[in-house]
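Below sits my pick:
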Amino acid sequence: MLRKLAGLLLLLGVVGISVFIWFSRDLRETHPTLLNANKAALISVRAFYADRSATKTYLPSAGGKYYTHKTTIWANDVLVVSELQTGRKLFHLKDIDHSEWTDIPEILHVWRDSRVWAIDVTKPDEENWKDITPRGFGNWQYASVPSYETGKRWVITWDRAGSYADLWMVNMDGFGKTPIGENDGTVLSWIGDETLTPRIRLARPDTDTTRVQLSDDGVDWRTLLDASAKEVFSPLYINDKTESFVAYSSRGRDKIALVEVSTSDGLETVLVEHPEYDLGRNFSFSPFYNPVDLIVTNVDETQQFALTDNGRVFEGFLDSFENRADLEDIYQSPDGNTVSVELAPNAIGYERYFLNLEDGTSRHIGTFSFLNRHRDALVPMEKVRFTARDGLELQGFLMRPKGVEGPVPMLINIHGGPAQNHSWGYRHGRQFLVNRGYAILSVNFRGSTGYGKEFQALGYRQFGRKMQHDIEDAALWAVEQGIADREALGVIGASYGGYAATMAALQRPDLFKVAIAEHAMMDVAYQSQFPSDHWGLSIQSWTKYFGDPKDEADLQIMRDYSPITHAANLQVPMLIVAGKRDGVVGIEQTERFVESAKETQFPPQTLIFEDEGHGVGRWQNRIKRARIMEDFLHEHLGGRSGGWDWIELAADYL
């Protein structure tokens, strides 16, 4: 009897192992170019999206004493607190949504369960935590840096009006709230000085005007200038002597520049500009985020301009790298003396450093663990240019499968917005798709930001038309160059990119054989009539692209070029990803499109998350998304798939 039982257990074990091996086997590529290539090793989906050794977001404290970083311990996301000089771990905290250091080196603020807590890292037990959540607010956020020296902090809240915010002052302990800026329905933002007195107010008195107002006391305001809402004008900070302030501006020029603006007459003096690109991110390492120490161009952030001694120290650090580096994240200590830098030399993986701005010394604190393991399988990003059918020069960023020669399956990657852009740098999600055998061409179509007002304006009211043509022309260029296989083209995008991917599938099924749309706008008229509250007073940015929903002629064009109108004509396989908590593009748009397309030859395949919004954030859901995506593309474009992975069980039950 025991022998029979042992035999049965052995048989069941063999069967179980066989089933596991069968389901977890790699699914080989079927595309002929990929079949005969010397490809890079296949990287598992869990290595991409469930790396337990991955770390990120290194924040240094004042005085360079401590730092925090995020990592995963036993499938739990945690915040680790360590000594900066030695790297010795002190403790870790679970379930932390956000954190920040203060001007007191030992005091750390953390967000947990919608509350803000002050922690003395020398006494980290929860019984010693202090609840400093601003009292008496519902929908709110901080609007100034934490300062125990001043004892005060700004809070903006949408409680009263919903679509626009009021400004309040609170004590650092969360009590003593005082109104300092009631919004009359036109104010976009306030900027204060180091005493937290409001000094600059940006308003939108009508849809065509940006008004800049100044105050000496935060109570009485005078208008300095009115700028066109079609131009960028964004103040950053007021100078110490209050005779001028610094701003981003495209007033009277095509590209966004950094300017100094006189507070007496509004005249501008250009500090930094670039002939090809708008200026992009700026970095200020001081406690109150002024002055600007370093600024980079949009689209291609490897072009940097130092404006101060601290900026030149940082620029010298960047110049020490042999290959140009993409700046991913920079975090400064509250006293401005130490910064943590995460960058990607040659746009492949991340290296992390602490940089002392006082003496210019740097210390390497680690390499992206994924890069350490899979460096040989990763590919660089190429900058490419091509011409649209009407002669307009367009720019894109190309990534190709390693070790493969000849035309391959390709995905045209469409950014969201549409007032956004693709930029050069390390992109983890694209590396996943390239590793599966697909070339990825990320296109900055007309209407994209970063190239000046004229280029952006070429996209206004061209949704579904010339903006789509640019996407088509990008694919055709890649075919002509021998990069892409004409019979294995797909399109992918999220938000507006999801809209454009869906329209590409509906308008050009002869060109695009497959589409992936995530969190996609499927009904332009509906989205325009019922916009997200988050847009507030910036709704004119939307109407520039799509028209006025109160105008019946504009509304009809929105209907004509909406995916929902043509859903019943879907002729290619389509994968749709959406989240039921999406506050930007409601899930009802996806539901209506899927219902309208369900009787077609290719009813859309869907992946709907109950616990996600306008994006996919949880690692468990990223696993599910990656797995369904690689199998979907394997079936329809012929790349490879890692097949079932045991991490899927963890994603289901953790």
About this structure: The domain at 379-653 is CATH 3.40.50.1820 (Rossmann fold). Residues 215 and 221 are 5 Å apart (CA to CA). The longest strand covers residues 484-494. The first helix runs from residue 2 to 23.
